Every structure is written in C-alpha cells, then in structure tokens.
Amino acid sequence: MREFATFEERLSDWTTDAMKSVFGLEGSEVHLGVSPTNNDKFGDYQCNAAMVLSKQLKKAPRQIAQEFVDAAVLPDFVEKIDIAGPGFINFFLSDSALAEHVQLLENDPRLGVKQEGQGKTVIIDYSSPNVAKSMHIGHIRSTVIGNAIDRLYRFLGYHVIADNHLGDWGTQFGLMLVGYREFVNEEALAQAPVEELERIYVASYNKSKEDDSWRDLAKAELVKLQQGDAENRALWEKFIELSIGEFNTIYDRLGVKFDLYRGESFYNDRLPEIIGQLEAKGLAAESEGALIVDLEEDKMPICIVRKSDGGYNYATTDLATVESRIEEFDPERIIYVTDERQQLHFKQFFKISEKLGMEANLVHVWFGLMRLPEATFSTREGNVIKLAALLDEAESRALEMVKSSSPDMPPEQQKDLATAIGIGAIKYTDLSQNPQSLVTFTWEKALNMQGNSAPYLQYAYARISSVYDKFHAQYPDIDLSECSINVEHEIERKLAIKLSRFPAAVSAAAENYSPNILAEYLYDLAQVYSSFYQNVPFLKAEEGVRESRIRLCRSTAATLKQGLDLLGIETRERI
Ligand code: ARG
C-alpha cells in the first residue's frame, strides 16, 4: 500500500533543508518541527525554527525569520509564508495541494495513517482484575483506556499482545479453599459466581478473625495448594474459570478481547530464580526475616521481594513477568495500565528490573480514579459499582432516548442502537479526558446530545452518512471517486485541513497514551463539519461543487467512524 506523508512531515522536512541551505548549516544535525495552528491568521502550520537557531546563528529570531522568508524558494504545496510575533514562521498551504491531499486520504482505507509500528511487538497489560473479586472502578477504567491504547497501537501496525495479568495467586486462596467447603451456595455460584466467591471470602475472613483454628486450617490448605495437591488445585482452577467466565461477559459487552490471560500464577516457577539473581547481584538484603531491595539511592522506599514467611510479593511476580515476556516475545515496549495508587509499585520494579539488566522499555500509564457523585448510580453498593448493572443502566437510559428520537424504528433496531449508544457513552466519558485528571461521571454529561459525548458523535456520524445516501439515491450513476475535491469556500478549507490532521491525531494519542487526544480531534471535526453543513448547500449546489462537498462529507464520515472505532465506540448508519 502506498503511504503518504502528512503536511506536518513534509513541512518539517522542507523547513529543515531550507534553513540549512539558507544559513549554511548543511553539516549540522538539526531537525526542525512544525505544528498545526488553531487560528487561520497564523496560517495552517507554524514553526519556531528561528528561535531554535537563534543561539547557533547568533542572530535575533525575528531577523532569522525575515532572512529566511526573503531567501527561501517555496515548495509547490505552500502558497505563502510570513512571520508572526517574536519570529514564528507561518505556513499557508495552497488550496489545490490541500484538496489533492484530502482526496488521497479519502481514497485510502487507512485514511492516511501509516503502519509505523510494523515489525515491532508491544505488550499491553490491562484490565487485570483479581480472581474471585468484583472489578472495581480502577479495573473498569483500565479496561476501557487499555483497550483504546490497544486499538491505537494495532491500527498503527504494531504487533500487539493484550495480556490480562489476572491476580490469581496469593494467600487469600487459603481462606477461599476452606471457605468454599464450608459456605458455598451452589445456586448462587451458578448465577453470579464472582459475587458468591466474594461472599465466601468475606465469610471465611471474618471467621478467621475469631477462630484461630480456622486460620491454621486455611494456612494448611494454602500450603497444600502451593505443593500441587490435586483437590485444592482443581478447586482453585474452578475459581479462576468461574471468574474469567464472568469477566468475559463484561469484556464481550465492552467489545474487548485479550490475546492472553496469564495470571500471576503463570510465573510462579520463576520466583526463586529471580531472588537468586537479586542475591547474586548483591541487590537483596535480609531485614527482619524478609528479603528486601534497598532503593534509597533511587529515592524510593525499600521493596520487599520475599516475606518473612517465605511468600513472594507483587513486585517479585512482576519482575518474573518482565523476564518471561522478554524471553518469549522480545517486545519493543511493555505498557501497563492501572490506577494511580500503583505508581510506586511500578517505579520500584521498573528500577529493579533495570538493575537486573532486563532490557525492556517499561511504561506505566496511570489514571486517576473516577468520581461518582452520590446518587449517580442506583446500582451503587458501598464502594463497589457493579459493572454489569452500570452497563444495564446506560443501555436502558439510551433506549429511552432512542425511543423518543426515533419512535418509528423497529424495536430490535432501537435496542441495538441503544446498546451502541449506552456503552459508547460510558467509554467516551472515560476516554475524552486526560486519563490523569479527575473525572466526574454524570449521566447528563455522558448522554448529552448537544455536548462532547459519544451520542453526539454517533448522531453526527449517522447524519453525515445519510447525506451521502441521499446523494446516492438521487444520482446513482455518479462515481464519486472519479470526481475531484475542491476547497474554495472558507469552511470547506477548514474541514479539509481538519481531515488532513487525522493521522497526526492518531499518532499523538498512541505516543502519549492519551486517547483523549483522538477524542478531542473527533469532537472538533464534528463541530467543523456541523458549521460546514449549516453554511453551504450540498445536494442543491451546482454540479461539481456538489460532488466535491459530498466527498468531503463521505471523508468526514469515514474519519469519524474509524476514529470512534479506535476508541472502541461503535457507530450505526441509521439513528
Ligand atoms: N491485579 C492487579 C490489581 O488488581 C493489577 C495488575 C496490573 N498488572 C501488573 N502487571 N501488575 O490491582
């Protein structure tokens, strides 16, 4: 497939070369970037090269800019350049080059997004809930944000391995084993397995507080499990299977798929050997019976890698996991998505893995917890929001909306649409804000048809598609791909510029692990489109102009659809 450069890339290459030749810098290493402007006054792109080179050239930025503007021979896709402020150089693209570029994008199924990750493997460790426990809000956000990052990297051509690092090991299984034998209600277990497993755990835990012999029994059963006792292992596997089964029904509803479900237990056999490595490198020390890694010189608290009872810790498992992932997959990067409370844990084991010489690029993408104002959820119980109930509520609220906006739609279709809108609304609320900022969830915002929300974008997409359908019905013989795009009207130009920036938005969202960059782009695009739609005639425009506008329209629809898909949000043609 033919890949083409964005204006950003073409302009920065050109500026770099032209600066070098105007100022005789041929041998130097500089690469000068340009960035998109938000104000037409400053052209379409802007560059701060004059500031960057000021020191080297011993001249004031404004003078450099002036000399550059006077001397440079413009490439054919640039109409003019001028200077702003202290020495910014503004670039104005030529209308014909812009039109031609957007036409190329529109003909490309990838909308101009390059496969920049080809040949590289990225492991994304996300969702990763704990067996026999309900997913909390942190796991939900990890699932939604992690999945968007997963989709972005896949689209950029990376070989992505989505790995669900389940918490399936630990001392709690001793209490689970004895608790199950004593307290299980098989009927409840069949109906809502995770809830029942959680209830069993709590009952067993409470009993252990009052009854020492119960605690000893739990310990003994845990040791048996660790030693491979067949009966305990079978029961433990049952807990895992039941939990994964329930998690999967949620993942299905969210359109999330994992390549691997490797829980912590998968790495058990490696743990003693990790300790061995730490000892051999002189990194581990005994402290009150436990084995610790002192991270004082790295300005972090000590990290316990083996407890005084001989059990291993979370960090030890994560170190073994890194080692195993490197051996098996040779990833270019491993991305972990969890809530902010785990920052120290990740910093510590990243540092220790570096000290152990594990060569991997490890990235922790953390997010703040979402604020759920009281009374937001009728499904709230204590601090745990039952995710399934939350999704149910989103769908039923969306169904009410659909019923009133499309009363004539067949009920089946209304339901299908409500699913797309309800799930989309939940995801978009999460994805449209910087992951690290505090998100306050309200139904009004999530389902606001007029504001920055999934339904707003989904409706925009459907309306745009219907314009194209109308055109097709009226002019069935016109092949749009044969018609050219022109950008004569100011608003056409604005839309074309916006469309041409899709690849940059996708790359920036992936590079910064910030799906909100893409969400923001899509919202802007929908708004520019809406003023395009309000300001110029489409179907009633004269021949030629009409086809050009319909192509811009089709291109906007394709970009919205692709962009929303990268956020894991579904679209429908008919709303
Ligand atoms: N199971 C952990 C939790 O619920 C999250 C695991 C994240 N991944 C990792 N490799 N540590 O908090």
UniProtKB/TrEMBL annotation:
Belongs to the class-I aminoacyl-tRNA synthetase family. Residues 9-93 form the Arginyl tRNA synthetase N-terminal domain. PROSITE patterns: AA_TRNA_LIGASE_I. One of its GO terms (cellular component) is cytoplasm. It is an enzyme of class 6 (ligase). CDD domains: Anticodon_Ia_Arg (cd07956), ArgRS_core (cd00671). Its EC number is 6.1.1.19. It catalyses: tRNA(Arg) + L-arginine + ATP = L-arginyl-tRNA(Arg) + AMP + diphosphate. It comes from Pontiella desulfatans. The keyword Cytoplasm applies. Coiled coil: none annotated. Keywords: Aminoacyl-tRNA synthetase, ATP-binding, Cytoplasm, Ligase, Nucleotide-binding, Protein biosynthesis. A motif ('HIGH' region) lies at residues 129-139. SMART domains: Arg_tRNA_synt_N, DALR_1. One of its GO terms (biological process) is arginyl-tRNA aminoacylation. GO terms for molecular function: arginine-tRNA ligase activity; ATP binding. It is found in: Cytoplasm. This is Arginine--tRNA ligase. The keyword Membrane does not apply. Monomer. Residues 457-575 form the DALR anticodon binding domain.
